[in-house]
Amino acid sequence: MNGTLGPRRLQWLNKVPEVTLSFWVVKVLSTTVGETGADFLAVNAGWGQTVTRVAMGSLLALALVIQLRTRRYTPWIYWLAVVLVSIVGTQVTDLLTDGLGVGLYVSTPAFAIALVAVFATWYALERTLSIQSIVTPRRELFYWATVLFTFALGTAAGDLATEALGLGFKLGTVVFGALILVAYVAWRRGANAVATFWIAYVLTRPFGAALGDLLTQARSYGGLGLGAMWTSALFLAVIVGFVALAHANVGSREDRQIAG
Amino acid sequence: MTGRSRRLPFAIATAALAALACAAAACSTKSSDPAARAPAGEAVGQSRNGASRLGDLSPFRAIAADVSSMVGSGDLPAAKARIKDLEVQWDAAEAALKPRAPADWHRLDKAIDRALAALRAPTPNAADSRQAVGDLLQTMDNRGPAKP
Hints:
The complex is a heterodimer.
Chain A: H1 7-10, H2 21-44, H3 48-69, H4 75-99, H5 104-126, H6 137-165, H7 169-188, H8 193-216, H9 227-259
Helix pairs in contact in A: 2-3, 2-4, 2-8, 2-9, 3-4, 4-6, 5-6, 6-8, 7-8, 8-9
Chain B: H1 4-37, E1 46-47, E2 50-51, H2 58-72, H3 76-92, H4 94-97, H5 102-119, H6 126-140
Antiparallel strand pairs in B: 1-2
């Protein structure tokens, strides 16, 4: 039915990366860069919160349009969208908390419910939540809606841990790191792969934030005193390195997908 | 499902991040407590009965005092320029200070926001600025204005 081109040439290849070492490293680091980057623009560069929100929201919309229009996984677009979702997800939570006075005790369960609703709709329509076959526009919209809500939930839950429990970044790094480890062990022992993936995805938000704070905060506050600029530069360099590597590998992955 | 090829990198990534986190947390523990507990030499940033729950606020109070004297002498542009130092340093220290006493942190954060807004108004007003910066200093000294 697809004439001489053959059916596979007209289909999307999986639009999202495989879950590998570099996936999780870049996910954690882009979380940190997202937060420090938004802060830098709003405060240090003097844009203010409103201008930063509008600018980042527009950039995210643009990145998502580009991402949705591609026919295959393109690492730099995908990760640019993740970094921007990280920024905007954080801003949404901050706006609710500081701007509109919605408490974290309300927003945290609300984001959790919204996330469950996205999963329920996704499953009802697609009969799968697989992240290995994001091959249609509808599935990809579900995927990015989920990503946005996991970042909002991760931000709210992390802030709630700070507000309610006084959880600082040192203990926070250990606690959230340990929870990610629990998700990993559960997955190894046969727990649902999709569920453990998204749980880990939520947890990497507060983990990445705490890890970033550990590096940026002054030594007198118990951090390593690298400062926001050097930490962001270091993390950004690592991200760029991994993304460049992913670009080099993308060709071989597509060959496998087309062959398979 | 590709089995081990997916699991192994996840294991390495998790272990590496956990190791980095533990190492960093361990080696930074020693330096953390003095800042939290050390009573400041002066009566700034403290309640009457001891150190502020937020720790030593004297670096922030010193900037606020500068801003206050600039506003007092009517130099609002200089005050506007100087208060940015407070904004930047306060923001940079958020992760360290906020968990110590979230409610106190928010109260002071709002007071800083109000002082920033007054000095950054399209046409800054000397009386409003003096009021906002005065409230800020009072909040830092834990004798804050009555409003919540």
